[in-house]
Amino acid sequence: MHTKAETVEARRARNFEELKAAINASFSGLSRQLQAIARFVLDHPNLVALETTAALARRAQVQPSALVRFAQALGYDGFSAMQQVFRSRLVLQFDTMQDRLETLGTLHVGGRTPSIADETINEAQASLERLRSGIEQDVLQRATSHLADADHVYVLGQGKSYPVAFYLHFALLRLKRPSTLLSGTGGSIAQQAALIAKNDALVAISVRPYTPLVIETARARHRTGSPVIAITDSSLSPLWPAATVAFEVIERDSQVYQSMIAPMCLAQVLALNLGYRLMREERKRRGKATR
Questions:
Q1: Pick from 235, 175, 239, 173: which is nearest to 203 by CA?
Q2: What pLDDT is stored for residue 114 in this prediction?
Q3: What is the model's pTM?
């Protein structure tokens, strides 16, 4: 018979991936304040690894005791015990110079204060480095398979996600894949989405603040059994549970706007990966035809 302490120890995450999964699993049962903390720690893992509890509480705009309650809700004795998981991740992570500068919160270019151009370009570079290290090949191949096997691909993104959706739609057409951009002209997204069949695929793109219409469309298609490929900014995104395959593309908010550099690059990666797959399949067909 297991004691209560042994049960808590058994469910305590021992590495960052386990902790991330535990946060996702318990998220809906957390209070609003603890949900905000969950988003904060997943969005800023390097800061959580390096800063004090008091400093993190100020950044997250909560009391230090709230961080302790959050850690205890996940089976830890206190916040410091959970913080060790973030520190272990930082040690194991391939740490680029840009990541280190970003973590320290200081950036000097040639010994001078960075300009808007410097900051924007450096943030874009950091976003692309996070994308490079964050893409899982099995997820990429599964998404590519859905795009290749679908009778028709529908692409949906609104607001700042719209350029990413338009680019992917355009790339699919260049690859001669049947594609429809759900633009919503005249408020017609619901009517257009109703045409998505089970053998079709939907690519849904949404980042904070999430567009309710995109989320609801993805959920509806997920319920009907159509593959849904999601591009979003957090595993806590409301788009995540509706996805058959999901990509987490973390972008740091700047003072003025949220960059979409990494989601745009991911769209290009998807298109190129699909293109190479279609090219290989075509060569195989030609080879069989000449035998």
A1: 239
A2: 63
A3: 0.75
